[in-house]
Design brief:
This protein is α+β, with helices and mostly antiparallel strands and 634 residues long. Helix content is 38%, strand content 18%. It starts with 9 loop residues before the first helix and ends with a helix.
Length: 634
């Protein structure tokens, strides 16, 4: 037995703790879980704190961020945390890297404390102090610490000087980019992965950039269902996803077991899922040879940010593979819901056909990565239990999704949009590296980026009453030497939502689409406001404002101008535009971290948890809001 050794040192541990405390303070303040009190400066100039991230501070200082800095204090009862930072007009926070200090007593002035203590790094102490102050239940607090500890260990591995810088990232392949990112920017427990041990982390976490061979298994058709788009029967799928020699060997393996290959469906399985869940859960079916392990793939794969989806690095043109992985990460267990898995190809067929027949939508340049084929395996016992926790009904299956590789022109590159909010260890951002490569002025680049990414979403919303979940992990950016060219969207059946009205454009939906959630027009617009503006553009705007000498109002003005221009270009959609009311003055604030701390915790429910809704917040593209912000920054 091989025992894994910890591959981080004390310096990395403390650096990661510091960065996660900064992230947690910013997000807890945004979700109003904690409060910050601005300390009086008494005419004393704020001192610049020397930290290991001095280059990041230099970038911020050039952009004028330093002129906005004030000293704030968070009172957590037993502990007090001070930091330099400011609150954006949208309501989120900038925390100066390395500026957080921890004290056992409150400090009311700036007379001495900020330069005497080292940056706060004890994440355990911070999280438990917040949880006690917020009266989080002990059960929830305990599991929260466990999840944060996993995140802390994972974060520490990112403080490795060998990792590529931001300029280098813009030249990596799409698969390689997935392995250099930090994870979800909003959920503080972004790499919790509860269920993984450290050995599993080293072997399967995307930031470790493992190259894996996945397991092929054969499942009897009494247990498994195959669903596919037109023209992709099982034999065609096998021919496209398996080398002929390995396919021949697999079929012979089934014959050697005394079975007929035509009675079985072949699919891929994550090695962790096989060892930790499937072998015991399906032991009877394995013993009866209704399930036959065939062997490891000849192809090698790398995990993407979602951790359960894999890129084929041996044959990048082959499809991505999405597999159930029954670990708890970023709010939910990462299984594969059976009803949605079965429906995915039929909805893909409708969506791609609709897109192909809509010249206006095509002109936006949108790329849709089809969910072409799925296998769903029944669970004879768990499937019969009404009200069972949802993860027990998402254990076994496979989804093949189109690779982006076939959509790229010779001069084009592609990267996850999650990379746009990434900074390297020297403080340089991928966003700035792309802007510099393009040769455009920052606001011109931003306008092009928003044009490429938002207009196809608005058209889908208005014409079809259809929205994706367009955050960074669900979208990619195709660029040419840094210039934004097209947006790529994935994750249809999990994340597409529809209008709850009888739009004639939806009349041809297949019966399988009944699994998709329906919402009112006003609620559906939240997938632009929250799913795009808050989950994604909120972080892009922060980096944009830190790296370039522009105001928050100027950033959001570009977004508003693109939306207005789109509305003017499509008068035929005026009725729909008014119905969805994208420019209304306020939207409800949606919170994600509150779900873990208060509303849901770590409960084993039959349904996945829903976000928490707070009070209304300003719409950053509303005319009056923008006018106030422009005036405030004048």
């Amino acid at each position: 037995m091989t025992v894994a050794s910890l591959q981080i040192n004390q310096q990395q541990w403390q650096q990661a703790g510091t960065r996660l405390i900064e992230m947690a303070i910013a997000e807890f303040l945004y979700e109003e879980i904690i409060e910050a009190q601005k300390l009086e400066a008494h005419n004393i100039e704020i001192q610049q704190i020397e930290t290991q991230q001095t280059k990041a501070q230099e970038i911020a200082s050039v952009a004028g961020t330093a002129t906005k800095l004030a000293v704030w204090q968070v009172n957590l009862g037993e502990q007090y945390y001070q930091f330099q930072g400011f609150q954006y007009q949208l309501g989120h926070w900038y925390i100066q890297p390395g500026s957080v200090r921890q004290y056992a007593v409150p400090v009311a002035t700036l007379s001495e404390p900020l330069v005497q203590a080292e940056p706060a790094w004890n994440l355990h102490q911070f999280i438990t102090s917040v949880a006690r102050q917020a009266e989080v239940k002990p059960f929830t607090m305990t599991y929260l610490v466990k999840e944060m500890n996993n995140t802390w260990v994972a974060e520490a591995h990112l403080f490795d000087q060998q990792r590529p810088d931001s300029r280098a990232i813009t030249n990596l392949s799409a698969a390689e980019v997935e392995g250099v990112l930090r994870g979800h920017p909003w959920l503080i427990m972004s790499k919790g992965r509860m269920g993984f041990g450290y050995h599993d982390y080293l072997n399967f976490a995307p930031e470790m950039q493992p190259k894996l061979q996945l397991l092929w298994v054969a499942v009897h058709q009494q247990l498994a269902d195959y669903h596919h788009i037109d023209g992709l029967d099982l034999q065609t799928l096998y021919a496209q996803e398996l080398d002929s020699q390995q396919l021949t060997e697999f079929l012979q393996h089934i014959r050697d077991a005394g079975q007929q290959p035509d009675d079985y469906i072949l699919l891929l399985v994550h090695p962790w899922q096989w060892h930790h869940w499937l072998m015991s859960t399906y032991a009877g079916e394995i013993a009866s040879q209704h399930i036959i392990a065939l062997g490891l793939s000849q192809d090698w794969y790398m995990p993407m940010q979602s951790i359960r989806t894999f890129s084929n690095i041996s044959h990048p043109e082959r499809r991505y593979v999405k597999l159930p992985l029954s670990i708890f990460n970023t709010a939910v267990y990462r299984g594969l819901p059976s009803d949605r898995n079965k429906a995915a190809p039929a909805f893909t067929q409708w969506l791609k056909t609709t897109f192909a027949n809509d010249a206006v939508w095509q002109q936006t340049g949108l790329v849709l990565l089809g969910e072409d084929a799925t296998v769903t395996v029944d669970q004879p016992c768990f499937d019969q239990i009404d009200g069972a926790p949802y993860q027990f009904k998402e254990l076994f299956g496979c989804l093949w999704r189109e690779s982006v590789q076939g959509y790229l022109q010779d001069s084009e590159q592609v990267l996850s949009q999650a990379a746009l909010v990434h900074r390297d260890l020297d403080g340089h951002s991928v966003l700035t590296a792309l802007v510099e490569r393009s040769g455009l002025q920052p606001l011109t680049w931003l306008r092009q980026f928003v044009q490429v990414c938002m207009t196809p979403l608005l058209y889908g919303l208005y014409r079809y009453g259809l929205v994706f979940s367009p955050h960074g992990e669900n979208s990619l950016l195709i660029h040419e030497n840094g210039l934004p060219k097209r947006m790529v969207i994935k994750d249809f059946i999990d994340d597409v939502n529809l209008i709850d009205e009888a739009f004639p454009e939806l009349a041809s939906l297949p019966p399988e689409a009944k699994v998709l959630l329906r919402h009112t027009a006003q609620d559906l617009t939240h997938f632009i406001f929250t799913g795009l503006f808050i989950v994604h553009y909120r972080y892009i705007s922060s980096i944009f404002l830190q790296d370039f000498n522009h105001t928050e109002a100027e950033f959001w003005q570009q977004v508003a101008d693109v939306a207005h221009e789109f509305h003017q270009q499509h008068p035929e959609l005026n009725e729909r535009i008014q119905k969805f009311d994208l420019f209304r003055p306020q939207f409800e604030k949606i919170c994600l971290n509150r779900v873990r701390l208060f509303s849901h915790g770590y409960a084993d429910d039959a349904e996945r948890p829903y976000p928490t809704i707070l009070h209304a917040m300003p719409n950053p593209i509303h005319a009056d809001v923008l006018a106030q912000w422009h005036q405030a920054s004048a």
